[in-house]
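mind reviewing this fold:
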Amino acid sequence: MAHDLAEYAAIFGAGIAAGIMNTVVGSGTLLTFPTLLAFGYSPVLANVSNTIGLVPGSFSGAYGYRAELTGQRRRVLTLSVCSLLGGTVGAILLLNLPGSAFNDIVPVLIGLALVLVVIQPRVGKWAAKRREERGTAEREAGGPLLWFGVFGTGVYGGYFGAAQGVLLLGMLGIAFTDSLQRINAVKNILAGLVNGIAAVLFIALSHVSWTAAGLIALGSLLGGQIGAHVGRRLPPAALRAVIVCVGIAAIVKLLV
């Protein structure tokens, strides 16, 4: 009994931490997924249960960032379609492909995303200057290249999901000149939709540990609110530093 309580407490605690991380940056899966593996869950069962459990936290964090979503309706709607399609494909791949399929490419993708996050201020200013010189306006919902990138991130997110937030922040930060906080608000919506559509498919087509999923859901729900409270108060430079640190930790974790 004591062992069960300790296990439940650890999973619940990991859910809280993951909810905070996912709202502020992403990569919460790197906390909850290994926790489930440590308690004997098989990789696929852990991945499925973890994805379902993190859905409430994703939308809790998105709700906490609702003020930053003002004026981004068209952007969110357009990119949401890309995320939903990608998440659907990714979830189907998880149920049909070996777990090692993306192992080699994922660290490279995260590394590229971190580079984009770091150089985003300079690239954003350069892009704004180029648009001004050409007399063209920034596309409110991005363009085909961004749509394909968000779709691809959705595929990855539906398949595994660790650091999909970092990937989204990198791409959105380059595509738009909005503040990092407003971009983070969009990221929370998109990541939540990917997890949500994947969760629906997993519930319908796979076995789920509802105990693990429920504990992570409760923890991530609380963590999402904490993450929104903390993340919205971080200055851009500090938020960027947190993103880089989490991304590097994700790369190390995945490689090791």
Observations:
- The CA atoms of residues 117 and 239 lie 10 Å apart.
- The radius of gyration is 18 Å.
- The chain has a mean pLDDT of 82.
